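User: For my dataset I need records formatted as: sequence, then structure tokens, nothing else. Please produce one.
Assistant:
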Amino acid sequence: MARMPVLISAGEASGDMYAARLAVALRQRTDIDLFGMGGVKMREAGVDTIVDSAEVGVLGVVEIVRKLPALRRAWRRLISEIERRRPTLAILTDFPAFHLRLSRVLRRKHVRNVYFVCPQFWAWRPWRVRLVKRRFVRGLCIFPFEEDFYRQAGVQMDWIGHPLVDSVHASLTREAFAQRYGLNPRLPIVAVLPGSRPSELAHHMPLLVAAVAQMSSEGQRQFVFAVAPGLTQAQLETHLGALAPGVMVVENVTYELLGAADVAIVSSGTATIEAALLGAPMVVVYRVAPFTAWVVRHLARTRLFAMVNVLAGKEVVPELIQDAFTPVRVVRETERLLGSEQDRAAMRGELAKVREKLGPPGAIDRAADIIAEMIRNQPLA
């Protein structure tokens, strides 16, 4: 008997990681043929990726307009494969700009849609939750307060907890990390996580490089830039230019770096949750194109931007967003934390409270149990 085709799709580095782990867990429970859109992690998990998520991974109005031709090509390939394989179930991971449109097409083709890692519509354009109600038969959310938000809109929703609770661990001590990368463990280590998209590097790196140049000039600070999944070291180093003494780039050891760092400068997003799970005091930064920022300001429904602050219900880590993200402010906030063990300890205490709100381990297994049951109760055709 042919295996049931199931579409699984992710459009960003974090979604690729979550969907890959879900794919492995589903294969342990069901006999299915997984195909769709994803990145390196999903391919490693055995998903037949018709579209590489790097082709569509953009953020912001201006960036989307620039990539419209590539987006259209990716869209046509994916729709063609959906029509050929005719899945009856689709698992869509976050990435609402793409997946809400895809869900409309899938629903017309009588595909049951599951939203795995529901979008943060409570923060941005909340009326889109109505589209989830119409087009999805089930939703799985990773933050506790999201369950009520979606259920009040009539969506069948389950809170599974955060997948990162299981996977974020540092395998090296600070001393071992310093020894491996030639760092001085007696001097402060500052981790710099500039983002996971090329567009984020374009907006963030000039400001971060300027801030780091100012702080590293006296040789008493060590700065380590982390290459995010889906990017390459060459992409990041292009923005760095000639590396100054005390500045380096590492790849595939982000958690070890965060565990070793005295302070982290982190692009807002999933990385802030990773830093919180590792207890890393942080300064959160983010900048987009001016027009995109104007749109966001008029549509946002939350005063806090960093997810760790949203979960805490207050600003426990400094947010330098858009115009507030300047080299001067980055230097000021970073040096404040480096200069005060009391401030760093207080922030670690607040981050520990945030970690408690992310739920117990086992989020991926809970998601896989729910979806596997749906698959078992669904006919092949």
